[in-house]
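User: Here's a chain of 174 residues. Predict its fold as tokens.
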Amino acid sequence: MTSTPPPSQPQQPQPPQPSPSGSPESPGARADRRLVELLQELRVLQTGVQIVFAFLLGVAFTPRFATLTDGQQDVYVTTLLLAVISSAVFATPVALHRGLFRHPGKARIVKVSAHIAQLGLMLLACALTGAVLLVLDVVLGTAAALAITSVVALIFAGLWFVLPWAVRRPLHDD
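Assistant: Prediction complete.
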């Protein structure tokens, strides 16, 4: 005996919610707006990645590069790879948007893209921190470079990750 599955519940249309300007906004319009905002933010970040990557490419072709220690060259290679990977990660939401153009699940695309952008921020923070470590190690020595770079890493963590988390937490009225 075969049974038929129960009819699926039709999805109830969600009522429009206010946009940042206060006017009602449909879920589709909200997803479109959020995606446009995210892609604009990624354009800004991609410029930063390109600058770091260009700096790192230039370093390898200077006469002083041959004098770097093995440890400094390891930091260089790691930082270069972090910059390349962060560039790829920041471009992924654009590729996702292009690949799924006119796909009905735009809200999901926005959510996935936001997570990808967070990963890109983490990789970019590591690449920038690595670049600082490399330059300061050459200029000031390892001990000073490690101390200053630790502060730089904490600043990135605080501003890019802890601060948004703290602002996102619900506020409780006492």
